[in-house]
Amino acid sequence: MTALTDVSSHAIASARWRIGEIAFWVLVLACALLFPSRYLIMTDIVRLALFALSLDLILGYAGIVSLGHAAFFGVGAYAAGLMALHGIVNEPVIALLVAGLVAAVVGFLTSFLVIRGVDLTRLMVTLGIALLLEALAERFSNITGGTDGLQGIEMQPIFGLFAFDMFGKTGLFYSLIVLFILFLLARRVVHSPFGLSLRAIRNNPLRAAAIGIPVNRRLIAVYTLAAFYAGIAGALFTQTTALASLDVFAFERSADLMLVLVIGGTGYLYGGLIGAVVFKMLQELFQTITPQYWLFWIGLVLVVIVLVGRARIHRWVLFVPNLVIRQFAGRKAVVAVPESEAS
């Protein structure tokens, strides 16, 4: 009984909102309000953050590695584009949910292949699924538009009130609200008994099965949920850019997603969000300095992160905030490095 109480207390304590989390979202909202000239790049960051969040659910919490997560992003993007192009679902929010559900169905059907292998097998299977869907999209060009993509997509105003504008203001706040709602859902999931069971499976699947956790069902469920999130991210891409092409299935999109999580870290939700911000800022900076060789500098940053260690970089970055907090809130109040990064 004491063990159950300890687990319950730990779960409740972990689910509490911390000052750093609130400050993060306040800062995000402040950036959206204070930099109107950067709406488009911020919308791109928000979409990438949601996409990274979807991968973190399976990689950081269930230990499922994937090199083909763009498959679900592409399914969501094309589903939203086709519904808008043919007037099947005119309301963007409803179309967003439908596109996410279509991606979730694809994720559920392919999850039975993914859970059968281990890391290397899963890498190959997920990559193969993405390549297969890209080939199918190119084969049925009469539906998808082929290499030209879907042409003439016109998005209706959100709830009939908020029209998408060329400056990206509506798209940014729309994407930001979707990200926050789905983040709250993901946060609730990972701090639930379901989320705790996923951590047990990630750490030791055999031991998890021995204590009665239905390993395969848990993995199928979280893989389907991650596909839903990725499909929503893809639908946001189509709705905010009025574009859907074969590029949404590209391997480079999945590879960039892995880089985002390498930069931000896995297993604490904010890793994908922070990694998306840093990755996009570095990309824009290096493309401005050396447009032809920006990938070299991104690679150099990744090497530095691996050699120095993410936890040590976090301590350096948080040194000044910790110093200020100690002065005003006492010596025990510090901005801690996430447990998954410190281990």
UniProtKB/TrEMBL annotation:
Keywords: Cell membrane, Membrane, Transmembrane, Transmembrane helix. One of its GO terms (molecular function) is branched-chain amino acid transmembrane transporter activity. The chain crosses the membrane at residues 22-41, 48-73, 93-115, 171-190, 219-237, 257-282, 294-313. The keyword Transmembrane helix applies. GO terms for cellular component: plasma membrane. Its main location: membrane. It is found in: Cell membrane. It is a multi-pass membrane protein. This is High-affinity branched-chain amino acid transport system permease protein LivH. Pfam families: BPD_transp_2 (PF02653). The keyword Cell membrane applies. InterPro entries: ABC_transp_permease, LivM-like.
